[in-house]
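Possible regression after last week's pipeline update?

I re-ran a chain I had predicted before the update to compare outputs. Posting the input and the new output here so someone can diff against the archived version. Not blocking, just want to make sure nothing changed silently.
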Amino acid sequence: MSIHDNKWCVLPYLAVVLMAAVAAAEGVTMDGEPKLDKLDPNMAVPGVDGNTRWYDAAHLGIEGQAWQDTKHRFDRLPGKSEGVVPDPVWRLAQHSAGLHVRFVTDSDTVAARWTLRFESLAMGHMAATGVSGLDLYVKDGERWRWAGVGRPSEFPTNETTLAAGMPPGRHEYLLYFPLYNGVESVEIGIDADAELAKAPAYPAERAKSICFYGTSIVHGGCASRPGMAYPAILARRLGRPVINLGFSGNGKMELELAELLSELDAALYVVDCAPNMNPEMLTERVEPFVKALRQARPDTPIVLVENVVYQNAWFNKARHEGYTEKNAALRKAYENLRAEGVPHLSLVPCDELLGDDGEGTVDGVHPTDLGFMRMADALEPPIRAALREAGEAP
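New output (post-update):
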């Protein structure tokens, strides 16, 4: 029998082969689902109960980390910056604010085990869950929803079940690391018969990160959970990777930081430093800082953020003058830069950042989760507008 006699068998076979080749080229399965990069179970450490496998989260790829050449694998600044940036900035860069992993698993249970770098689990005005805890989200369609929190109870190592009784099938998760502590290691525990895979990559048009640089507010003080810092909220809303370079008490626009930021091929820079600076510092530093960034990155949008309204300033004259004088200096620098023709530069006013009812902070300055949600609401439209103006996906 010749091949021509079997043409009705051969043609469907060839069609299937062609469809499989097209799917492979597009990075999807025959069913149109994203192809997953599954971790080899041999990478895992069996749990003592025999029902769990523990995977080093680093195998999934740490996101939110701008440099790979770090002194410690969970630092936020490169090793070369030690001794170059101010010492407090270097120490604070050892906090894992903004670092996270995304993964896919069909496990009924998601557990975590993490070892902290620093003994202080909490602060007087910030919960241990935000300072030293983990925070788990799960994707519901195109929306991220909260799934579970890792409560730290001791130093250095904690272990907990983050979520259990999950619906059958694969789900995509996002696990945030501590905001005001560092980690030596983070492990993810799944059922022994479940699979663990890296999450699909961001689409090409949204693959570039937004870089946030600033103060304790950017750092995440005083969110109750790591996922409630405003850069993390905006990352979930925008569907983009985000880099958190907040340094508590030390967002001061040093030129050394401008040089480091300019190394990043970012989609946009958000500079939120006014709370750590006085009017004289703002007058002295804003224009050189922006010009240094603009020289290195001619087309990357830069969004400057005014100082938040101190929540007791409505009746405290000194507090009112404190933020208004700083914002006047910042606006003057912004106007000078615009007059000189610096492109893709915008300024977010303070009025809507925290609201006007005094309910958005723990101490009049540092946002609660409510305050961070309000900040995200206020910052999202100008960030989208700046991205759109620069030709980036908003």
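Follow-up from reviewer: compared with the archived run. DSSP finds nine helices and 16 strands in the chain. Marking as no regression found.
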